[in-house]
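It is worth pausing here to work through a concrete case rather than discussing structure prediction in the abstract. The textbook approach is simple: state the sequence, then state the predicted structure, then interpret. We follow exactly that order.
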Amino acid sequence: MKQRKVSTDSDRARLQRLNEYLERNFPDFFAEARFQVGNDDYFLYARFGQYLARTIEQNRASGRLINRGFTVLNRMARASARNPRIRQMLVSGALEYILDAPRARALARTRLCAAAQGYLESLCERGLRRAPSGRLAHRECDVHQLRAAHDLQRECAPGRHAA
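Step two, the predicted structure:
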């Protein structure tokens, strides 16, 4: 049986680079979120997904800001290939909020990289049932079993054609 890779210093460095990019491009959000949630990266990126989805839905930001937000998610998706913790933060944090917002979800389908789109589509397939709180009830699912983008059939959105 193949051994799972244990997190290393390079994994922590990847997350640190993501945090630095987020702080550099969204300084007001980063300062407010760190004040509210402390050093908990899981909640930081969940709040970021909520912030990005809300910004898109309410049409409150420029296209450049939204592109930088999707760049953060794309960088997370690339880093998640080697770090299951980052994958969990992306899938059950940021992308969950994007999935809940129709305009943000539509924009994400054009701006996210293939890996992030794969995670988003997998959420569509798995998480359409809701918990009583209104949040998606997929947090228990094993993020290691999420399929890659090339394995997905695009069945999530009605009227979407298979690629």
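Step three, interpretation. The longest helix spans residues 63-80. The mean pLDDT is 76.
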